[in-house]
Amino acid sequence: MTGGVLSKMGLGSLEPSDEVLMPLPAKKEVVLAIIRAGSIGIITFYIMRWALRYADPTYQQKQKSKTKAKEIMARLGVKGISLNEHEVMIATHLVDPNHLRISWADIAGLDQEIEQIKKTVIYPVLAQQKNIRVSKLVQPPKGVLLYGPPGCGKTLIAKAMAKEAKCWFINLDVSVLTDKWYGESQKLTAAVFSLAEKLQPCIIFIDEVDSLLRLRATHDHEVTAMMKAQFMSLWDGLITDPKKTVIVMGATNRPKDMDTAILRRMAAKFHIPSPDKNQRKHILDLTLKHEVIGPDFNLDKLALMTDGFSGSDLKEVARSAAVACLADLQLSRDTLNNFTLTTTESELPSSLTRGWFDMINPFASSSSDVMDGDGGGGDGDDASISSLDVGSVTRNLSLRAINMRDFEHAVMKLKEARAHCGNALDARHRIELD
Prior knowledge:
Keywords: ATP-binding, Membrane, Mitochondrion, Mitochondrion outer membrane, Nucleotide-binding, Transmembrane, Transmembrane helix. It is found in: Mitochondrion outer membrane. The chain has 434 residues and is of the alpha/beta class. Helices cover 54% and strands 7% of the residues. It has two domains: 62-271, P-loop containing nucleotide triphosphate hydrolases (Rossmann fold, 3-Layer(aba) Sandwich); 278-427, Helicase, Ruva Protein, domain 3 (Orthogonal Bundle). It has 15 helices and six strands. It has a six-stranded mixed sheet with strand order 1-3-4-5-2-6, sandwiched between helices. The chain is extended.
């Protein structure tokens, strides 16, 4: 009756209905449906995440760069600096100046160039760090260009400059700025300057800078043109703010291929020439300072023989001469390990002097006497005596001194290699470089 009264009053009924009370089996179906939907959602999420991860081929590289950047920043003691994902990619090329194992003392034959670099770059940077105010014009240059033949020490000078000026050093790899996704190259270019600004004082070093900032042309790719334009725009932004100690430094052996706008921004230009005779003497003297040199070595003669050689060429000559000594040492050890009682002095390599042969020969002769005598079992004793002595001599062998013949042979090898890459030989032996 109550239900009827309520129904007449328009308030419905209090009687239980199928719409209000759900049977127990129906509740289970709803719970199972929710579980199924949740499981499908989770599986779909991980599938989409996996698909997006492998759709971007640079994903793993970015993750590795992020991990490496964190390790570098922690090792270098950089704290309180937050980096975005693009700055993290650039931070993997960061070098602590205190970890650079190079100084001005390790660079020979470039005293005048180093003195000019100190006056133009180093002293203004140090004055700004120490808040020494002499004039508003006393500011470090925002761009430095080192140009000259390859192998003459441009990269060494850049590292020594960063160490002397106590600046962070970003050894920028041009390939880092390229990305398959549209707009990423511009973001990475901006990250170079934003990271350098956070770490200032900082040097951004670009080796072979002509490969990135060469002359602009109408046939340049759109992305490349935009990247160059943004690079120069950000560079100009740094120039207008005298409080930022960020130096863009480039090294090239093709300065004529560079854009004139870039050359204008690199106001401090230093020519690093090929060493002359006196400079080659200084370079060789520094390179061989800790080496054991034979009495027949003639530094003046070697400097004359290496006319036209760069600093890296001279180092290669010294390395090749030292390797020749190592080869002789290995040959001597191999010969002694195969030493027999019938070995004669003429069969030993020239690197083994008569003194070494005389140390072994008495045992060989005494062993022969034993073999001729009684005893029957003397063969085993003879072998043990001989092997014991040979092993002792082999362990005591050491590298001989580097003599003039080693250097002459090394110079000849390098000249032959250079001739095969140039025009000194006939056409069938040449390698076309361009």
